[in-house]
Amino acid sequence: MQIVHRCCCGLDVHKKLIVACLISLNEAGEFQKEIRSFATMTRDILALADWLTSAGCTHIAMESTGVYWRPIWNLLEEQFELLLVNAQHIKAVPGRKVRREVA
């Protein structure tokens, strides 16, 4: 597999919750995956941005329904390369998402 980005993130955006999956390549050449959840208030989105910046993330793909992605886009667009993806277009991709309970 050709590595395009050494560190990137996928966001699943909901009305009151953002689930972020950060995938990065460690120094041993292995992929690491970390999943965190954030609220959708400005301070929480900025905390998400700080976490991604500290991890060296450069690219973010967002999956959203409705207009919930817009405030996240506005706060992150100056720091990261953003993509808005249609969930229906990637629905059948194997292994794309693991369901987790959020506390």
Strand content: 25-35%
Radius of gyration: 13 Å
Structural class computed from helices and strand pairing: alpha/beta
CATH topology: the name is: Nucleotidyltransferase, domain 5
Overall body shape: globular
Number of H- or I-type helical stretches: 2
Question: Spatial order of the strands in the main sheet?
Answer: 3-2-1-4-5
Q: What share of residues is helical?
A: 10-25%
Give the integer mean of the pLDDT values: 83
Give keywords.
single chain, five-stranded mixed beta sheet, 21% helix, 103 residues, alpha/beta, Nucleotidyltransferase, domain 5
What report would you give on this structure?
By secondary structure, the protein is α/β, with parallel strands linked by helices. The protein has helices spanning 42-55, 69-76, and strands at 7-13, 18-25, 31-38, 59-64, 81-85. The chain is 21% helix and 33% strand. A five-stranded mixed sheet has the order 3-2-1-4-5, covered by helices on one side. A hairpin with a 4-residue loop joins strand 1 (7-13) and strand 2. Helix 1 packs across helix 2. The longest helix is centred in the middle third of the chain and has 14 residues, at 42-55.
Briefly say what this structure is.
This protein has 103 residues and is α/β, with parallel strands linked by helices. It has helices at 42-55, 69-76; strands spanning 7-13, 18-25, 31-38, 59-64, 81-85.
Question: What's the SSE blueprint?
Answer:
Blueprint: E1 7-13, E2 18-25, E3 31-38, H1 42-55, E4 59-64, H2 69-76, E5 81-85
Parallel strand pairs: 1-4, 4-5
Antiparallel strand pairs: 1-2, 2-3
